[in-house]
């Protein structure tokens, strides 16, 4: 059963378990968008995909803006870049907490946030998971599919492919800052193909598309 909430930012009221930011800075970039969405985009952390200033995932950075632009073209995103309106789309991060500039999360910090990420993913209960970049893709394939052992973590090869998950379809997205010629068109084409299909039938069944 889908949840019923119209809250756009942090719809489930998550509270980060730690804070490494200086006084006055944003503690975390929470999930944002349509909590009843069929499409769920998953990034790494605010230092990579943005939001430390805006509080909105996939803003501010080159990779963040690149992802938002793809979903704007395919009809999921309207409105201003820094506070977009999302339809049938939810955005969040594997690691929601903000860190001082230039710092990367430790494995322990990723592990500390795993239960929060998993709870939100299952509450959204989307049909299509779209992890962005190597870290998010590795995590999603490991935890939500039986496919991880079948693939080298080669984002150029996995980009825009439609993969079977445990009740989900997983469509990895290469970091936009690393896109080669044609990568943007590949993910736009894959999204358009999914939208034109009966993608809701992938939920809860072992369907391999593509």
TrEMBL record:
<keyword id="KW-0004">4Fe-4S</keyword>
<keyword id="KW-0408">Iron</keyword>
<dbReference type="GO" id="GO:0051539">
    <property type="term" value="F:4 iron, 4 sulfur cluster binding"/>
</dbReference>
<protein>
    <submittedName>
        <fullName>Uracil-DNA glycosylase, family 4</fullName>
    </submittedName>
</protein>
<keyword id="KW-0227">DNA damage</keyword>
<keyword id="KW-0378">Hydrolase</keyword>
<dbReference type="InterPro" id="IPR036895">
    <property type="entry name" value="Uracil-DNA_glycosylase-like_sf"/>
</dbReference>
<keyword id="KW-0234">DNA repair</keyword>
<dbReference type="GO" id="GO:0006281">
    <property type="term" value="P:DNA repair"/>
</dbReference>
<dbReference type="InterPro" id="IPR005122">
    <property type="entry name" value="Uracil-DNA_glycosylase-like"/>
</dbReference>
<dbReference type="GO" id="GO:0046872">
    <property type="term" value="F:metal ion binding"/>
</dbReference>
<keyword id="KW-0479">Metal-binding</keyword>
<keyword id="KW-0411">Iron-sulfur</keyword>
<feature type="domain" description="Uracil-DNA glycosylase-like">
    <location>
        <begin position="30"/>
        <end position="178"/>
    </location>
</feature>
<dbReference type="GO" id="GO:0097506">
    <property type="term" value="F:deaminated base DNA N-glycosylase activity"/>
</dbReference>
<dbReference type="Pfam" id="PF03167">
    <property type="entry name" value="UDG"/>
</dbReference>
<feature type="compositionally biased region" description="Polar residues">
    <location>
        <begin position="1"/>
        <end position="11"/>
    </location>
</feature>
<dbReference type="InterPro" id="IPR051536">
    <property type="entry name" value="UDG_Type-4/5"/>
</dbReference>
<feature type="region of interest" description="Disordered">
    <location>
        <begin position="1"/>
        <end position="23"/>
    </location>
</feature>
